[in-house]
Amino acid sequence: MNIGDSRFTRTFNQPKPILGMLHLAGESAAERLDNAQGELEILRSRGMDGVVVENYFGDKTDVRNVLEWLEGKHPDLLVGVNVLHDHRLAFELARQFRVDFIQMDSVAGHLLPDADADFAVELAELRGQVSSVLFGGVRFKYQPVNSGRTEAEDLVSGMDRCDAFVITGDATGQETDVSKVQRFRSVVGDSFPLIIGAGLTAANVQEQLEAADGAIVGSFLKDTHVDTGRIFGPHVEELVAQVLAVRTANSGVYGRAVR
Length: 259
Fold this sequence. Notes:
Blueprint: H1 7-11, E1 18-22, H2 29-45, E2 50-54, H3 60-70, E3 78-82, H4 87-96, E4 101-108, H5 113-127, E5 133-138, H6 151-159, E6 164-167, H7 178-188, E7 194-196, H8 205-211, E8 215-217, H9 233-249
Parallel strand pairs: 1-2, 1-8, 2-3, 3-4, 4-5, 5-6, 6-7
Helix pairs in contact: 2-3
């Protein structure tokens, strides 16, 4: 696999893509949809490459409502979905709506061996039904480790199950340890995309994107820099400015090789 010509780069044709989380907060379905619409416009108008629609605060119906509203709108914006605790629904939604990528918090390591074998077969079948890129986690925040395999063994298994790994620390908003990214890189090589999944800030963009191939951002974009806040335009602008500086300084080369 060549990161310059892969399913990942055919979808994410911007070097080091930055994707903003829509956490779907609100007291009612109508309020959650309204909040998502407003926050998406902030992200889109201030230069984010895409969004991840996730039932972090809302529920599965809220994810569907946002995707239904988005259908046919903003073709320049990459749209992803993460249905927590229900990956089957994520694939179902990807068959019904425009979903450029799916995020799953774990694709290897979280299940006991017998269940993991069945999961691998099911996941291969689901992936064959959609064109969406699949982001997967290994040793992802809050996920159990039940495989009985080493981290490296789970990474090798995971490479056959997704198109990119999302890497986090131990908690939401916690900075992802670059040494963990480098440890994953030593196993997967330069050709498999690695995405920062937590803790990206304007202050650490350069270091994080030196090690990884993109990022998903949530907490930093909020008015409080905490996940419970609301997406705040100046914070988006601050982050995007730093990302653009990294891209400009390293223009001409794609992916992790960008220096």
